[in-house]
Write a structure and sequence with these properties.
CATH superfamily of the largest domain: Alpha-helical ferredoxin
CATH topology of the largest domain: Fumarate Reductase Iron-sulfur Protein, Chain B, domain 2
Number of domains: 2
Largest sheet: none
Helix content: 55-70%
Number of helices: 12
Structural class: mainly alpha
Bound molecules: iron/sulfur cluster
Number of strands: 0
Shape: elongated
């Protein structure tokens, strides 16, 4: 069954992302250059089209918006200056705010673990981040051999380094809004 149409959706996403979404004419150059399009359930050009068509529910619960790595290749290729990565940022924020079922729960949990680690220490400490990610995602056993090899090769510092002016990081989280500063649970 197709998702209900939200006619205000394009204006809201255009404003939140700062992208001229209405100017897209489906040349698909964004999709041709996107390094993660092959694993997305909707490719970048489809995402823009679905925003234009007001397919809010389908997009906010899609896996594609979490597969985007924010490389901005789409933005540099688009003849109309549309960066789908920035659209995806806005869609991810909306999905988290609205509590929709996350389309890629493990990636969502990775985002939370990464941001919490950054907020805690001011820079990422891989071991504590991975522990938090594994507890959040319940993916406890994967890649243990790789982790052990990295530890033995001393590629992972055992203790976190805390930056001196951590209050500046706290201010950044505060400026980004309450949602970024808290740790909501991903809906699975
Ligand atoms: S490159 Fe730009 S105009 Fe072409 S499909 Fe992608 S967003 Fe639309
Ligand atoms: S920013 Fe996202 S959508 Fe755009 S090319 Fe990179 S991965 Fe693909």
């Amino acid at each position: 069954m197709s998702s209900p149409i939200d006619w205000r959706f394009m204006d809201i996403v255009a404003e939140r992302s700062g992208q001229p979404i209405a100017t897209c004419y489906q040349c698909r150059k964004c999709t041709a250059g996107c390094p993660t399009a092959f694993v997305m359930d909707y490719d970048p050009a489809q995402i823009v089209h679905m925003v234009q068509m007001g397919e809010r529910r389908a997009l906010l619960s899609s896996q594609a918006i979490w597969m985007c790595v924010g490389c901005e290749t789409c933005g540099t290729r688009c003849p109309n200056g549309i960066c789908v990565g920035r659209i995806n940022d806005a869609l991810r924020q909306m999905a988290a705010e609205e509590g929709v079922r996350v389309g890629a729960p493990a990636i969502y949990q990775f985002h939370r673990a990464f941001l919490n680690n950054l907020r805690r220490f001011g820079r990422v400490h891989e071991i504590t981040m991975i522990v938090e990610y594994k507890l959040r995602s319940l993916d406890l056993l994967s890649n243990l051999d790789l982790g052990a090899r990295l530890l033995l090769a001393r590629k992972l510092p055992p203790l976190p380094q805390v930056i001196r002016r951590r209050q500046e990081i706290a201010r950044l989280f505060e400026a980004a809004g309450a949602h970024a500063a808290e740790t909501p649970e991903g809906r699975e």
